[in-house]
Amino acid sequence: MKSVVSVQGICKSYGKVQALKELGFSVAPGELYGIIGPDGAGKTTLFRILTTLLLADAGRAEVLGLDVVKDYRAIRNRIGYMPGKFSLYQDLTVEENLHFFATVFNTTIEANYYLVEDIYKQLEPFKKRRAGKLSGGMKQKLALSCALIHKPEVLFLDEPTTGVDPVSRKEFWGMLLKLKQQGISIIVSTPYMDEATLCDRIALMQGGAFLQVDTPQAIVDRYPCTLWSVRSGQMHRLLGDLKACVGVESSFSFGTAFHVTLGNQTSPDELRAHLVALGHNAVEVEPIQPTVEDCFMLLSKNH
């Protein structure tokens, strides 16, 4: 089956800063593909190249079998793009924005209403409100509706849930899973590691390069060592003491605990005894299952 997105050796630099480093990957039809990484990883640059808004310095990219440089007009008619920054007309109402985008693509709201119905129903009470006056979650829903109204075959969403509340994030991902069921291929970028588990496959990205590409579960299963959760009654100085410990290979803050990996010569009992000797009490060292974020932190450290 032919890929809906195919990238080979894409490079892009801004002056001396190399934003993308010979990236190569493909996205299958109907796939929900996540590109996961922090700010500055190169996600937006990649999306702008794939949506024909930016030229790469080198390499080749195709969307729906069309070249992003030669066939940019045809690609723009067949994809939907939701940039990270809200980019609709803030002085137009909700209704006017949706009508405008339908008109641009020579269609009508009625023709493809079924695609946006679930989303637009939540917007309908505010359809006469100017877009600039909407909340973050409502702006997000309007932007997605406008990206869908011409029935795209591939949907590009660049950090769509950044800056919105947890409830809106959950609702938004529920919408994406429904769209996937309708056969739309979706490529989404996010800095939120917890959203990675909702994707079919993910690419962990840092510094313009992919660190690993696979299903979320396969990436977690590949974690190479035992991961330990460490707590003590002196959490304010625990991380510093962990980083200074010779037997600790990595230590990162995760919520109410620190996630730690140990060298082959150090046991959890030895770590516990070491921390007690440093004046820590109520020390807990327990094995835990790694998350995608743990995998990312380890890959970043090695990278």
Report the portion of residues in β strands. Answer: 25-35%
On the 0-100 scale, what is the average pLDDT?
92
The succession of helices and strands, N to C, reads EEEHEEHEHHHEHEEEHEHEEHEH
CATH topology of the largest domain: Rossmann fold
Tally of strands: 14
Instruction: Please estimate the helix content.
Output: 25-40%
The end-to-end distance, rounded to whole angstroms, is 33 Å
**C-alpha geometry:** elongated
Number of helices: 10
CATH architect. name of the largest domain? 3-Layer(aba) Sandwich
Which class of the largest domain in CATH terms? Alpha Beta
* Estimated structural class: alpha/beta
Largest sheet: 6 strands, mixed
In spatial order, strands of the major sheet run: 6-7-8-3-9-10
Stretches where pLDDT is under 50 for at least 5 consecutive residues are none
CATH homologous superfamily classification of the largest domain: P-loop containing nucleotide triphosphate hydrolases
InterPro entries: AAA+_ATPase, ABC_transporter-like_ATP-bd, ABC_transporter-like_CS, P-loop_NTPase
Domain ABC transporter: 5-232
GO molecular function: ATP binding; ATP hydrolysis activity
Organism: Candidatus Odoribacter faecigallinarum
Could you provide a short overview of the structure?
By secondary structure, the chain is α/β, with parallel strands linked by helices.
